[in-house]
Amino acid sequence: MLMRTDPFRELDRLTQQLMGPGTWSRPSLMPMDAYREGDEYVVALDIPGVSADAIDIDVERNMLTVKAERRPVAKADDVQMELSERPLGVFSRQIVLADTLDTEHIKADYDAGVLTLRIPIAERAKPRKIAIGGESGRKEISG
User: What confidence tens digit (pLDDT) does each residue in 33-62 have?
Assistant: First the structure.
């Protein structure tokens, strides 16, 4: 059997053991990607092993909060755990949204352990042409 040692993984595992699982008052951070795609911003959060009903998404003013809880899987009495590296507990991420985003029309999808939020850009923030009104002829000022 080939065994590979990764000292950073061991350090992460040790830190997780010392800190304990995330709690509602001290949640663990979840990894995130954020990018603009056309007329919307996309935020992708990794939360594998979490059921969709254990995810809570809130928006208050311009603060978006995502919380999720990964609970331990029920095991039979005769099961002896040999290795446990998957973190359990509460995970959270807060994102400050710009005023140019439409927080009323956020869409959320959860697939394969990735929560994807699509936040449209508000109509008032999109570039637009301004029509010029008035006469095109010259006027003289007489005095």
Answer: 999 999 999 999 999 889 999 999 999 988
- Token duo for residue 134: 């008035």
> Phi and psi at residue 34, in whole multiples of 5°?
-140, 135
Residues 6+ apart with CB under 8 A from 131: none
Residue 53 neighbours by CB under 8 Å, 6+ apart: none
Please check whether residue 104 is in contact with residue 121, taking contact to mean a CB–CB distance below 8 angstroms: no
pLDDT at position 26: 58
| H or E, element range at 11 | helix 7-19
Count of all residues that appear for the chain in the document? 143
**Six-digit token string for 17:** 């053991």
For the record, the structure tokens of 40 come out as 């919307």
pLDDT of 132 strictly over 80 = yes
- Beta strands 40-46 and 114-120: pairing type? antiparallel
